[in-house]
């Protein structure tokens, strides 16, 4: 026949039979899955990925594997995976999956209960919600699909367990949940990791220097406008802030919607610093011109006097203003008013930002799969 002579027909049929899914009549076979999350070791917000270490503990009943203990006194045996049926899982969001044990074995009890432990490391894609970065919270899903079976044959019952003991992380998993999405054609279950950013580092490294720079800039307004150090001071602050700003922008990811509010905050800060530097340069320039004009006017008056000695006209009575005496020149007055408005504006901007931070919610654009004319929600 077609069978190789070394194989006996009965054995082949037996092997083929045990690698088929156990039949549970008209109901699907129930596979209980416990997901132990033992580590979430890398959360990369720039690449939108999460790396995690998981242990899957699956158990189901395969009555064909049961044996009579009075004939074979063993309580349990271990079998290689190619000699029995096991669910084959694919993680939909995974960029890569590293199954730690390359030839795992299943443990079978004498009554046919099969237990299979699979340890894996995986990097999965996650749509972080970074609107409130660095106090952001996101939900990352890992969808496990058994593509070789249908929902008529197989059904998962999943539970998750948080076994993370490492606390030296920026992002912590504060909640874990599992669900079986309804109305699927392929059996699946979904694990959701709720991640919370506990980054004190970002607050210290981003907010504190930015606020300090803004405060230093406001204080710079107290230097008299005649002092040339004021321009140097403001320009130095602006340059320092520009360096800080460019490194900050590189440290934050970009997205089509729900960009971090912090980016807007730091851009407004940049505009404020720019405005105050511009004002200093402008007013210093106007003051220098006014002083120059005031210094020049007595001599021109004198020359005019000498020229028009014969018919003496009204001698201009303008006194050089602002340089001596308590009276301010107009650029100084404008500078003083600007300083008051600027302080009020800076304070206002901080309060407005705090309000936006409290009330803003991320309204993301519809995903391409939902919005496009031919798009639809994936349903497997
Ligand atoms: C077979 O299906 C029934 C009904 O859904 C369920 O209670 C039972 O546990 C299933 N048996 C196996 C071996 O999965
Ligand atoms: C197990 O084997 C013994 C001895 O052959 C037999 O008496 C008994 O009925 C068997 N039990 C079952 C459940 O088949």
From TrEMBL:
Ligase found in the keyword field: no
CC terms in the record's Gene Ontology section: plasma membrane
GO biological process, one term: response to zinc ion
Membrane topology: Multi-pass membrane protein
Compartments it resides in: Cell membrane
Assigned keywords, A-Z: Cell membrane, Disulfide bond, Glycoprotein, Ion channel, Ion transport, Ligand-gated ion channel, Membrane, Receptor, Signal, Transmembrane, Transmembrane helix, Transport, Zinc
InterPro entries recorded: Neur_chan_lig-bd (IPR006202), Neur_chan_lig-bd_sf (IPR036734), Neur_channel (IPR006201), Neuro-gated_channel_TM_sf (IPR036719), Neuro_actylchol_rec (IPR038050), Neurotransmitter_ion_chnl_CS (IPR018000)
Source domain of life: Eukaryota
Record-linked CDD domains: LGIC_ECD_ZAC
Catalytic function, reaction form: K(+)(in) = K(+)(out); Na(+)(in) = Na(+)(out)
Stretches assigned to the Neurotransmitter-gated ion-channel ligand-binding domain: 21-168
Function: Ligand-gated cation channel that allows the movement of sodium and potassium monoatomic cations across cell membranes when activated by zinc (Zn2+), copper (Cu2+), and changes in pH. Could also transport cesium.
Homology family: Belongs to the ligand-gated ion channel (TC 1.A.9) family.
Entry-linked PANTHER family: NEUROTRANSMITTER GATED ION CHANNEL
Protein's name according to its UniProt entry: Ligand-gated cation channel ZACN
């Amino acid at each position: 026949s077609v069978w190789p002579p070394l194989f006996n027909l009965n054995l082949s049929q037996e092997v083929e039979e045990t690698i088929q899914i156990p039949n549970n009549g008209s109901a699907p076979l129930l596979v209980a899955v416990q997901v132990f999350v033992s580590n979430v070791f890398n959360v990369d917000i720039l690449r939108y990925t999460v790396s995690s270490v998981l242990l899957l503990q699956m158990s189901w009943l395969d009555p064909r594997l049961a044996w009579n203990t009075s004939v074979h006194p063993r309580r349990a045996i271990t079998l290689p995976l190619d000699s029995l049926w096991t669910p084959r899982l694919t993680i939909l969001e995974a960029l890569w999956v590293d199954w730690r044990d390359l030839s795992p074995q299943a443990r079978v009890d004498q009554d046919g209960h099969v237990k299979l432990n699979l340890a894996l490391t995986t990097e999965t894609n996650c749509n972080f919600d970074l609107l409130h970065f660095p106090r952001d919270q996101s939900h990352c899903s890992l969808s496990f699909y058994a593509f070789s079976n249908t929902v008529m044959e197989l059904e998962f019952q999943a539970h998750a367990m948080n076994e993370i003991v490492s606390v030296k992380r920026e992002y912590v998993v504060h909640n874990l949940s599992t669900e079986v999405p309804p109305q699927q054609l392929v059996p699946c279950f979904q694990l959701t990791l709720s991640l919370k950013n506990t980054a004190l580092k970002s607050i210290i490294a981003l907010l504190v220097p930015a606020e300090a720079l803004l405060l230093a800039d406001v204080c710079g307004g107290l230097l008299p406008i005649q002092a040339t150090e004021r321009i140097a001071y403001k320009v130095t602050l602006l340059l320092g802030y520009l360096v800080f700003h460019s490194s900050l922008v590189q440290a934050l990811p970009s997205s089509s919607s729900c960009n971090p509010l912090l980016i807007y905050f730091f851009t407004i800060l940049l505009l404020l610093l720019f405005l105050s530097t511009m004002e200093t340069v402008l007013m210093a320039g106007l003051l220098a011109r006014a002083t120059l004009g005031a210094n020049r006017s007595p001599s021109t008056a004198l020359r005019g006097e000498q020229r028009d000695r014969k018919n003496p006209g009204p001698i201009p009575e303008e006194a050089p203003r602002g340089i001596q005496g308590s009276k301010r020149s107009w650029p100084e007055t404008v500078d003083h008013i600007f300083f008051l408005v600027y302080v009020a504006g800076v304070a206002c901007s901080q309060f407005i930002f705090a309000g936006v931070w409290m009330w803003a919610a991320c309204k993301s654009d519809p995903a391409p799969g939902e919005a496009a004319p031919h798009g639809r929600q994936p349903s497997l």
